[in-house]
Write a structure and sequence with these properties.
About 10% of the residues lie in helices and about 45% in strands. The strands form three sheets. Strands 1-10-4-7 form a four-stranded antiparallel sheet, with no helix packed on it. A four-stranded antiparallel sheet has the order 3-8-5-6, with no helix packed on it. β5 and β6 form a beta hairpin. The protein has a single domain, classed as Jelly Rolls.
Length: about 170
């Protein structure tokens, strides 16, 4: 019985250390993508910012495997404000070196990418915001988009406090 309590205490201590190390995080969530990310599939996140005065940095997070066969990634990111205003951006990110080696962090075949979305955003409207993320990949020379994108396992969205490096 004492061993179980000691083990539980150690587990809680380590968990709180891991969570407290990320003090910049305001919102951070991932959603799994089925085997293939269909071009019509939209990954949505709902968030309520803590205030309407401070500025934040926004990121799209992505986990991908070696099955991802492109050097870049095109995303359509849409932010819907609480009062109905919508901002839609088409973004391009570099996902691999010219040699084909995938960018991102991770020691296994799963790479994590933290991709800039917007810098210094002030959530001036109070209430719930919705962020919608959809891939917009095209193969070189083809008009129709990639119907099912392979190799993306999770899509995430992150809001961080802005820190000064003084």
């Amino acid at each position: 019985m004492l061993q179980n309590k000691t083990l539980l205490f150690l587990l809680l201590a380590v968990s709180s250390l891991v969570v407290s190390c990320d003090s910049n995080r305001v919102f951070d969530a991932y959603k799994a993508v089925p085997n293939k990310w269909h071009k019509d599939s939209v990954v949505s996140f709902k968030l309520t910012p803590p205030d309407s005065t401070n500025a934040y940095n926004l990121f799209v997070n992505l986990r991908n495997t070696n099955a991802y066969k492109y050097n870049n990634l095109f995303l359509i990111v849409e932010m819907v404000f609480p009062h109905g205003k919508t901002i839609k951006d088409t973004l391009e990110y570099r996902m691999a070196e010219p040699s084909g080696k995938l960018l991102g962090t991770g020691y296994t075949d799963v790479k994590e990418n933290k991709l800039w979305y917007k810098e210094g955003v002030v959530f001036a409207e109070s209430g719930e915001y919705t962020v919608n993320i959809q891939h917009a990949m095209r193969e070189h020379g083809k008009v129709n988009g990639v119907k099912e994108l392979e190799g993306v396992t999770d899509v995430g969205f992150r809001v961080e406090h802005i820190t000064s490096n003084n």
